[in-house]
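Recall that a protein's primary structure is simply its ordered list of amino acids. Everything else, from secondary elements to tertiary packing, is in principle encoded there. The following example makes that idea concrete.
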Amino acid sequence: MVTLSGAHSIGVSHCSSFSNRLYSFNNTHKQDPSMDPKFAHGLKAKCPNNGGASDPTVPLDIVTPDRLDNKHYTNLKNHRGLLTSDQTLFESSSTANIVRKNAHNGGAWANKFAAAMVKMGSIETLTGSQGEIRRSCRVVN
């Protein structure tokens, strides 16, 4: 999963998917302490705390937003992961070393990523009562 998370090197996210990290993280910290303060400041300018009146998008990877590369992992090392699930990969002792290796060696990551995508492509689709098409990706029907 760490290897496949590199797909977050491209694409965008709605501010609502991570705004809790900027404005209401927990009772102790309004802002997620694992997030680089300068990065958070820039995100706040693009994602105002307006109660959901608008929901703009921002790139998942601020360094190379239109290129599939290993900069996603460099961002995580620099505490500039947009999504909690991504930043946790660097904060967790069980995956942090993989993040470091992926950040250090883009070629090795690209080879692992390609192999993982091929393997994932061989997963068969569940149909009928075995599968489920979700009305909303965030919740089970």
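The beta strands are 12-14, 57-59. The radius of gyration is 17 Å.
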